[in-house]
């Protein structure tokens, strides 16, 4: 039986996966991933939401209300040590994405959305060179982070977007942490999606989502392109031997501030030398 928190990906076709707030049963985060063949286009109306468009692989042209941002993206795979191209678009805009590469070259694009209550925000390309890259953890808890749209970037109203590479046999989002209570400065409420990619692509990984009282306790076996929805609770991830794991996180909540709480049962390991 498939977990209700797991959105399985389509193996072929334009739309890879689509998680709406209605599907997730929450208020803020929307996530959609599409694959475009050479010359294909995808049109998005932002409506009352803001959008962070992330060029996962390939090269695209992005047009927003007639303004064109050409040749965005340079990665052949998300596992390259290269930051992605991205565009922030506020509410009330028409966005057209076109695969700008030649025949035989697919582009994969992530469409990350959240409510936008400020129509004065501006369209902007997020320069890959400006994205912070960092290493978190140590030993088999080491992972490699790229902040695409972090909470200290003022251009967005509610969205936070980050990508992480977890090497094979490593854990991530670990020790387990959560952000489901709006009690700043100790914790903030943020819904979250994990968009998973595996290398090699036939691999799998494991993600658990659980609360202190275990009223929510789901374990998901995730495959290439699957999404795990995290409405609340702790949400660690493990990559088995032989398969590197990439995930794109989208977070949003009533306030745009990321503060998490570690599971007290496992926080001890942070104090070990």
Biggest beta-sheet profile: 7 strands, antiparallel
What is the number of helical segments per DSSP (H or I, 4+ residues)?
A: 1
Q: Which structural class best describes the helix and strand composition?
A: mainly beta
Helical content stands at: under 10%
Strand order of the largest sheet: 1-20-17-22-14-13-12
Strand percentage lies at over 45%
Radius of gyration: 18 Å
Low-pLDDT residue intervals, each spanning 5 or more residues: none
**Which whole number gives the mean pLDDT?**
96
H/E element order:
EEHEEEEEEEEEEEEEEEEEEEEE
* Global morphology: globular
List how many beta strands DSSP finds: 23
Separation, N- and C-terminal Cα atoms: 41 Å
Give the SSE map.
Blueprint: E1 6-7, E2 15-19, H1 21-24, E3 30-36, E4 41-45, E5 49-57, E6 60-64, E7 67-72, E8 85-89, E9 94-99, E10 107-115, E11 124-126, E12 132-136, E13 143-149, E14 160-166, E15 171-172, E16 177-178, E17 191-199, E18 204-210, E19 217-223, E20 227-230, E21 237-238, E22 244-252, E23 261-262
Antiparallel strand pairs: 1-20, 2-3, 3-10, 4-9, 5-8, 5-10, 6-7, 6-9, 8-11, 12-13, 13-14, 14-22, 15-21, 16-23, 17-20, 17-22, 18-19, 18-21
Describe the structure.
By secondary structure, the protein is mostly beta strands. The protein is 1% helix and 46% strand. The protein contains 1 helix and 23 strands. The protein has one helix at residues 21-24; strands at residues 6-7, 15-19, 30-36, 41-45, 49-57, 60-64, 67-72, 85-89, 94-99, 107-115, 124-126, 132-136, 143-149, 160-166, 171-172, 177-178, 191-199, 204-210, 217-223, 227-230, 237-238, 244-252, 261-262. The strands form 5 sheets. The protein has a 7-stranded antiparallel beta sheet, with no helix packed on it. A 6-stranded antiparallel beta sheet has the order 2-3-10-5-8-11. It has a 4-stranded antiparallel beta sheet with strand order 4-9-6-7, with no helix packed on it. A hairpin with a 2-residue loop joins strand 6 and strand 7. The longest helix is centred in the N-terminal third of the chain and has 4 residues, at 21-24. The mean pLDDT is 96.
């Amino acid at each position: 039986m498939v977990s209700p928190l797991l959105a399985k990906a389509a193996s072929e076709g334009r739309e890879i996966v689509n998680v709406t707030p209605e599907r997730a049963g929450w208020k803020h985060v929307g996530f959609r991933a599409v694959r475009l063949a050479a010359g294909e286009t995808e049109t998005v109306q932002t409506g009352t939401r803001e959008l962070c468009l992330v060029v996962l692989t390939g090269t695209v042209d992005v047009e927003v209300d007639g303004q064109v941002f050409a040749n965005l993206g340079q990665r052949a795979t998300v596992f390259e040590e290269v930051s992605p191209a991205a565009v922030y678009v506020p509410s009330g805009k028409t966005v057209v994405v076109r695969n700008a590469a030649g025949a035989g070259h697919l582009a994969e694009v992530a469409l990350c959305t959240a409510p936008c209550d400020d129509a004065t925000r501006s369209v902007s390309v997020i320069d890959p060179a400006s994205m912070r890259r960092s290493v978190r953890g140590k030993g088999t808890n080491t992972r490699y982070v790229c902040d695409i749209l972090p909470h200290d970037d003022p251009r967005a109203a509610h969205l936070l977007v980050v990508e992480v590479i977890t090497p094979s046999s490593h854990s991530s989002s670990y020790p387990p942490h959560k952000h489901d209570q709006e009690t700043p400065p100790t914790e903030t409420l943020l819904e979250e999606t994990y968009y998973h990619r595996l290398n090699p692509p036939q691999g799998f990984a494991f993600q658990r989502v659980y609360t202190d009282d275990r009223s929510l306790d789901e374990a998901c076996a995730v495959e290439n392109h699957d999404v795990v929805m995290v409405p609340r609770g702790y949400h660690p991830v493990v990559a088995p031997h032989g398969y590197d794991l990439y995930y794109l996180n989208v977070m949003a909540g009533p306030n745009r501030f990321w503060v998490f709480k570690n599971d007290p049962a496992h926080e001890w390991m942070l104090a070990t030398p």
